[in-house]
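Below is our example:
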Amino acid sequence: MRTTDLDAMLRALEKQFAEQPDFFDQDPVLIDLTGLPPELWDHPIDFVRLVRALQGLRMLPVAVRGGSLQHQQDAFEAGLVPTHESVLARQPVVAPTPAPVPVAPPPPAVQVPPGAMVIDRPLRSGQQVYARGTDLVVLAMVNNGAEVAADGHIHVYAPLRGKAIAGARGRTDARIFAMSMEPELISICGVYRTSEAWPADVQGRAAQVHLESGPEGDKLVITPIKLG
């Protein structure tokens, strides 16, 4: 933000995205006040209105950075979280400390294997998804410039055109599956292969990728998947 005039800013946002109403899909947003001129630091900002307006554009405001101490306090009261580097005033914003509430001791922990992370919308260029400690299932296209990563397997039930990184923390049995294999880059446990070295017989076809160890070291093996 470079102005505290919400009417002008929101008109510009609505005009910019009027022809792309689905451009955002609950994407998290940081409200950055570091570009606000110092002469506007004493101008109030209606953060409640700003949050509601951004939510109406299918954004998810979560945090604020920069601005004055009063801006930080108002943003906090509107449900936004100040980032660590955000307070440019001399005093930090202090959240009210809730009274301690007695709680019963927790029951013994039950070890439950984590379920796969499921993404059911297309991933645009620049978007990244990481399934920590589990598999990743993508039900829509991974576009060029997007990146999917998982500590386990990656399943893409659509064209895979971006980057795919399986076994991100060393799981050697991780695999990558795609209904249409045409990625920019694939990697398993740090062994990678780019589109320039992609075999023509699996380009654009259903295929899987796994890591194979041999006398000459580890390599990625790409094989077609027979459907039906």
